[in-house]
Amino acid sequence: MALLERDHNAVQSWRGNLPVTNRYTFGLAGERFFREIKDNGRIMGSICHHCDINYVPGVNFCERCLNPVEDWVEAGSSGEVHSFTLVCVNVDGSPKEVAELIAFVRLGDGGLVHRIGETSIEEIYIGMPVEAVFKPASERIGSILDIEFFRPIGG
To answer: Contact, 138 vs 63, CB < 8 A?
Structure first.
């Protein structure tokens, strides 16, 4: 029976443990992106010269024209707050002991969702210039958490 011919109203379940194992990988572009953060404390993007787009994080293929993207450039460690929220609940639904300020920080034509530090919900605003605060090189492991948070630039 073809997928579209199945009775989608029939309830199906799996009893017991689900026998699924997997290993998440960053992929080639993600590997390069996180290695640069870990090894050099810098945020890299890739540029599609055909569409004039600076992807942050970097990609291997342009999402618009599907051409290979081979040129990587430093995106810088500063950007601006594009959107933000105050997170008061943990993933499991329990209340957080301390609320976290999270923002989408625009870098190039993309950006990162990350913690915002050294400011408050009353002080943050859309368009606020922020900069990445990296962990010391000896503590970096090749993760987005190698950036501790973004903090406001200036006063």
So the answer is: no
